[in-house]
């Protein structure tokens, strides 16, 4: 009997009869690893809750406490959350190098690994701490005048640390380029808004944006810390951007082989200059502060203007996004001076939103293109193995 007359059900074995392909094996391994990550996150949350409960009981015992204030349940809970999530986040992120798709991080130099782990863990910890402060502040205002005993205070502190550590462990274990973009926006937005809300000078906005970092109080410390960590976080982005752009070069999406190194270097420069804005507040060195801020803006403008050449191969709509960023920055500058429609603070906020908004969208573009290429390769392998 010729092959053309073989029945269809005999010409190709059924799905049950076919041996599992590499795609099914990878899916099973990924499912097992996700379950292990959930277990590790739960254990981390329990450790954070237990250690925070012991410390909180030693602090709270014998007295009653308000939910928020200088000495309060919320203050102790926020400190507990910051410390425990910093440790749990660092451990979870360091261990995630063994996950599929993260093996490339094992080849990083030790100082790059240390900066990467420290920055990701610190950003998670600050976000968790800010959320804790917001929750307890809201509860105090919702239950005006309420005070709680040591048992309630200890339980609230333990619950805050445990839940925060659980979330941080899961988030740090699943970091991708797209997730980093979301974390950057959340971190910078929440930190700056918290600094604005707690600024002792209600007229800070009449001067300029950097005025937030000159009060030598908790608000200014938070602002400068946010800018410093934000700069370090942008530098960490360079590692992921270099990897994803390299994948796009290999897939034939990007034209120039030197694009990954050039763009990642620009990100490092931008991150370093942004960190210097926090290291040198206006009241420490106006010259270094302004040079850092102006240098970052000019570097960003240079990246946008050169994008059609340096990032040749990206979708055309991405370059329209770059053009829109240039128009926003230059238009905002003109509205500030010489038109005088905007104040300096308004222009700085516009530049702040434009820069971090563009970074977020750029990384999502790159991440989507890289994922599409990986899916195409995986589909080809799956078809070949069936």
TrEMBL record:
Region called Disordered, residue ranges: 1-30
Keyword field: Membrane, Transmembrane, Transmembrane helix
Transmembrane segments: 41-60, 72-94, 115-139, 145-168, 180-199, 219-241, 262-282, 288-311, 318-336, 342-366
Stated name of the protein: DUF998 domain-containing protein
Organism this protein belongs to: Agromyces indicus
């Amino acid at each position: 009997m010729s092959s053309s007359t073989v029945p269809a059900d005999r010409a190709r074995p059924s799905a049950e009869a076919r041996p599992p392909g590499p795609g099914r094996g990878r899916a099973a391994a990924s499912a097992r690893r996700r379950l292990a990550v959930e277990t590790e996150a739960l254990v981390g949350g329990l450790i954070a809750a237990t250690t925070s409960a012991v410390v909180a009981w030693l602090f709270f015992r014998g007295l009653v406490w308000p939910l928020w204030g200088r000495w309060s349940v919320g203050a102790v809970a926020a400190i507990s959350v910051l410390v425990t999530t910093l440790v749990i986040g660092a451990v979870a992120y360091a261990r995630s190098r063994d996950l599929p798709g993260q093996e490339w991080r094992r080849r990083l130099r030790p100082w790059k690994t240390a900066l990467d782990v420290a920055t990701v863990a610190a950003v998670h910890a600050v976000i968790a701490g800010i959320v804790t402060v917001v929750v307890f502040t809201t509860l105090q205002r919702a239950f005006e005048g309420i005070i709680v005993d040591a048992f309630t205070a200890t339980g609230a502190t333990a619950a805050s640390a445990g839940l925060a550590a659980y979330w941080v462990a899961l988030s740090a274990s699943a970091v991708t380029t797209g997730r980093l973009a979301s974390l950057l926006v959340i971190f910078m937005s929440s930190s700056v808004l918290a600094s604005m809300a707690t600024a002792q000078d209600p007229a800070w906005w009449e001067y300029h944006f950097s005025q937030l970092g000159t009060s030598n109080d908790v608000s200014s410390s938070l602002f400068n810390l946010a800018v410093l960590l934000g700069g370090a976080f942008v530098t960490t982005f360079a590692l992921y951007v270099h990897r994803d752009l390299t994948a796009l070069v290999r897939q034939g999406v990007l034209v120039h082989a030197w694009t990954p190194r050039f763009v990642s270097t620009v990100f490092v420069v931008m991150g370093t200059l942004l960190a210097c804005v926090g290291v040198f507040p206006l009241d420490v060195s106006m010259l270094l502060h302004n040079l850092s801020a102006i240098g970052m803006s000019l570097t960003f403008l240079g990246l946008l203007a050169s994008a059609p050449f340096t990032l040749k191969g990206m979708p055309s709509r991405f370059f329209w996004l770059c053009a829109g960023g240039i128009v926003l920055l230059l238009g905002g500058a003109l509205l500030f001076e010489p038109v005088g429609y905007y104040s300096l603070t308004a222009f700085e906020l516009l530049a702040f939103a434009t820069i971090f908004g563009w970074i977020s969208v750029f990384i999502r573009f790159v991440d989507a293109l890289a994922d599409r290429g990986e899916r195409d390769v995986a589909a080809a392998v799956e078809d070949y193995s069936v």
